[in-house]
């Protein structure tokens, strides 16, 4: 028994450890954010409400059916429901019935309301999908920020490791009298500065991890981390397309554009519904009612002149006292204080407003794509320039190190060369991940998934 318990505990411990050591990929982060984001959950509820509204609109096309029943007892002066005569006594009565109403014609407003409800459900779906697109892009940006900070941290640690070697060598040379003590102090200052840079980069990694975790609605910041991979700039054919081509394709699949187009259809449907209020409304109704009372019926026997009293039983009275009513009802609008006319005017204005919003959304999309296209070109140039700068700084540093090692350069000048190469290396990391993100943004506008390879 103890062996089984120990085995279970070991399995649970391994499971908890593996869960804590889980490394998240970009695809996993995006999928998790879409499934757990609170704003998305709220929009999904709005979509469910829109579907319920669609069911309500369909129900308005169907006839209703209602049943009613009541029972009462009264003493004193009562009205006999069979003779309709007020008389003293005590009476118990019960009644019941069914009724049904149906709209036969209302200017086709119910049909248009059903079509509008379907469009509204579709608009809510586009609205939800557009929010998911925004969250995917935000997650990708936060994910790449973590990667950038991690790589910058690794670079800082690697540079510090080189400085440590220089520090040991300088200590030996100072002790042997080959170099003045001032050179050692200069190298120690450089090492201290790099240690501070490592601490700053560690803080940036932590902050960026927390920001990404918050986007995913994850509160266990300490155990949350992403896959440790060194991504290079991915090859992409999207830059071979012009900004105009990317914009033309984006118009076909972007959910914000689909939402704007659907809003125009909704506004046009509202206009049709408001115009339907000018037409007459024709409805049909059907009612069936019956009742029972414990009062006796009295009548005079014409043959004998005798007063006879009797009371039918419950079932017989239900059959005897029943009645049916059915017919049609027509309502014709004549004058309503200009409300119908003004509603039509408001609906026309809303149609024009929706059309203007579509044009504005197209303009915003085109502006964003042009900006993304320019950002890709600029970030590519910045990355290439950073690489060239780093290579030049690295060559200068190697040359300075050779001179410093043989005592032909003082520590202050050497530390400046080292600081320049450190800054160049950090700029390479920053521009690289900025370039990667800009490419992903442009690919996103082109309809490509957010994937890091």
Automatic annotation (TrEMBL):
<protein>
    <submittedName>
        <fullName>TolC family protein</fullName>
    </submittedName>
</protein>
<dbReference type="Pfam" id="PF02321">
    <property type="entry name" value="OEP"/>
</dbReference>
<keyword id="KW-0812">Transmembrane</keyword>
<comment type="similarity">
    <text>Belongs to the outer membrane factor (OMF) (TC 1.B.17) family.</text>
</comment>
<dbReference type="GO" id="GO:1990281">
    <property type="term" value="C:efflux pump complex"/>
</dbReference>
<keyword id="KW-0813">Transport</keyword>
<keyword id="KW-0998">Cell outer membrane</keyword>
<feature type="coiled-coil region">
    <location>
        <begin position="348"/>
        <end position="393"/>
    </location>
</feature>
<dbReference type="GO" id="GO:0015562">
    <property type="term" value="F:efflux transmembrane transporter activity"/>
</dbReference>
<keyword id="KW-1134">Transmembrane beta strand</keyword>
<keyword id="KW-0175">Coiled coil</keyword>
<dbReference type="InterPro" id="IPR051906">
    <property type="entry name" value="TolC-like"/>
</dbReference>
<dbReference type="GO" id="GO:0009279">
    <property type="term" value="C:cell outer membrane"/>
</dbReference>
<feature type="signal peptide">
    <location>
        <begin position="1"/>
        <end position="19"/>
    </location>
</feature>
<keyword id="KW-0732">Signal</keyword>
<keyword id="KW-0472">Membrane</keyword>
<dbReference type="InterPro" id="IPR003423">
    <property type="entry name" value="OMP_efflux"/>
</dbReference>
<dbReference type="GO" id="GO:0015288">
    <property type="term" value="F:porin activity"/>
</dbReference>
